[in-house]
Fold:
Amino acid sequence: MVEPQRSPDGKSEWTGSEWVPVGTQTQHASGANVYTQQKIVDSVIMGNLTSQTIVQNSPEDLAKAMVLALEQIGFVGNIQSSNPSQEQMSNVKNLLKSSDALASKGVQIQGSTHLKLGNAARLTGRFEAAMEYYQRALETFQTEKNRSGEADSLINIGYVALSQGDLARAYTNFTTARAMKTEIDDVNGEADVILAMANLALAGNENEQAELLFSQALTIKEEHADEHGIAIALIGLGNILESKKDYQAAQLHYRQGLIIKRKQRDREGEAIVLSNLATIAEHLGNTSDAQQLTNQSIAIKREIGDRRGESFSNIQLASQAKQRGDFIEAERLFKMALKMMRKLSDLRGQSDTLNMLGVFYEEQDRFEEAERYFTDALTIMKQLGDRQGEGMALFNIGNTNLYRNQLDAAQEQFDRSLRIAKTVNDYEGASDALVQLAAIAEHRQDMQRRQSLLKEAAAILRNNNIKVTGWLLDNGF
Structure:
């Protein structure tokens, strides 16, 4: 060990490799850089980590500290599905900056850490960053020939694709991941892929397939006593039963999921299920129960700082106010939710809320205001690359024009909506557009075209095993 040598002014000393301020505690080890013991504090990563001492011997040590920080704010698994709190989101943004800095220096980070960083980015709305981290994880696991890690990466890449409306890419990644899990005989891991594919089926309106997949996953998760997976499957089945209007059965599944979420002390999950139960109460006509459940949900979201979840609860409260006939309160809550979504830069949430506001104004014959909100939603759908959402927004805009007897504009919007719906295999959307085009034909006294369009609307549904109901069925189509 080199004896310290003071500088002439007495303020610095020579360590053998560099000058450092007098008083700095230094240690030397063969083949290692000089290091000092430091604490990761708020200015570096944020979060309540000031009591954790990290030896920063190299950038790799900082990478290890980053893993610790991720785990302390809740990102511990390879596949994360809950919503982050506002505090987590703030911490995550700083962690992602640290990760980018390490990557720029060529520091090799473990694949599992890339997965956690991807989860953190995805759940805070940074989908492009999430995709990049998952791709890095995939490359790392491929280099290591870690098939399980490869599959986990592909599952998460698929979830990002699904959130962006790219169902084809999601399907490709999920099927590849499932084949890998089967190859290495990871049955419980395969169930994770089955859950992902069930959500994909739901997004594609393939409810029967989704129900089958959720049921398969539930059986496997129960065999492996994987309570987290069991809860996801139960809630997914509850969603499907709700869509089938089997509200009592949906309520039972949600309650079973709620028991697990409370047992696991998953406050975010508990709040989500309470919100689902509130919707069921609305369907069953129990308005007071619905409001009580929503208030319980929003109280938890405020407690954990989940601003995104709180904004969705405001939407639910707005819908309940509208159902009671309190339109002033409903409008206030819808706009409050939209403001929160914009503050969070949640494009998907903004689009959903804009569409709800559009419908709200449309129902009150305030068509110009409705069109403005639908048009804003259309802009976001294009930005997200969500073709099905784009088609739905065009359909809604077409309705506002039709109701004002602006037939040429309405026909243009419905034609565009129809082309998109056919492109993305949205059969119900295509059928709806054809029905509205038939209404325009009727306005123009073109009854032959009207009949042809309505027959095509019914045929699209039947040819794709979708039951013809409502107006089409009542009028003999």
About this structure: The first helix runs from residue 59 to 72. The domain at 60-169 is CATH 1.25.40 (Serine Threonine Protein Phosphatase 5, Tetratricopeptide repeat).
